[in-house]
Amino acid sequence: EIVLTQSPGTLSLSPGERATLSCRASQSVSFNYLAWYQQKPGQAPRLLIYAASSRATGIPDRFSGSGSGTDFTLTISRLEPEDFAVYYCQQYGSSPPWTFGQGTKVEIK
Amino acid sequence: EARLVESGGDLAQPGGSLRLSCAASGFIFSSYAIHWVRQTPGKGLEWVSAISGSGSKTYYADSVAGRFTISRDKSKSTVYLEMSSLRADDTAIYYCAKDGGSGTYPRGNFEYWGEGTLVAVSS
């Protein structure tokens, strides 16, 4: 089973600032099949990025993903008020179980 | 756009059973795998089970294998999760999610999610 470790646990930033979130895998993620999700309180997660760098339908271009192998990054270029939420990475490059990181909370500074 | 609606969550006794349902619409139901993912404050997000578009293949996390059964009914565009021998650590919000792949077998990412249904296991 691939273990995903996200850092930092909490990111305190102001609107307009750049957010950089990290996700490290315990072994290489095949095909760079790494996804990022956003979750707001009381809501289900929403797919932002798949295959490490492809934006899902309707996702603004201020969200971008990068990385390969074991190290991946989600970048939010300029934080909007609606971007303050918890972000999870998830790998799907291997056979099940497909696993999630523990999450990074982006909070208003 | 795809829509998924879960139901069936409830309070259950340890050792008891529940059946969750996931009603799907807005896409060709038999063409996509469907997953169940659960979330707890302590353990975060955990993939639980998946079923291929045709229903011919099923997949389970070790934590639920032998206790949970996933199935789908094409005529009702609904996926079910039969949960038995429930334990306290099965307490969670259960989400169903449409697979992000374009084939009948699961790719393993989650393109659309329902709003979730709460399962609480306690005496």
Number of helices of chain B: 0
Radius of gyration of chain A: 13 Å
Largest sheet: number of strands, sense, barrel closure of chain B: 7 strands, mixed
The percentage helix of chain B is: under 10%
Low-pLDDT ranges of chain B: none
What's the N-to-C terminus distance of chain A?
A: 36 Å
Poorly predicted spans of chain A: none
Order of helices and strands of chain B: EEEEEEEEEEE
Total strands of chain B: the figure is: 11
For the largest interface in this structure, which chains are involved and how many residues does each contribute? Answer: A-B, 22 and 21 residues
In quaternary terms, these chains amount to heterodimer
β-strand amount of chain B: over 45%
Beta-strand percent range of chain A: over 45%
Blueprint of the fold:
The complex is a heterodimer of chains A (about 110) and B (about 120).
Chain A: E1 4-7, E2 10-13, E3 19-25, E4 34-39, E5 46-50, E6 54-55, E7 63-68, E8 71-76, E9 86-91, E10 99-100, E11 104-108
Parallel strand pairs in A: 2-11
Antiparallel strand pairs in A: 1-3, 3-8, 4-5, 4-9, 5-6, 7-8, 9-10, 9-11
Chain B: E1 3-7, E2 11-12, E3 18-25, E4 34-40, E5 44-51, E6 58-60, E7 68-73, E8 78-83, E9 92-99, E10 110-113, E11 117-121
Parallel strand pairs in B: 2-11
Antiparallel strand pairs in B: 1-3, 3-8, 4-5, 4-9, 5-6, 7-8, 9-10, 9-11
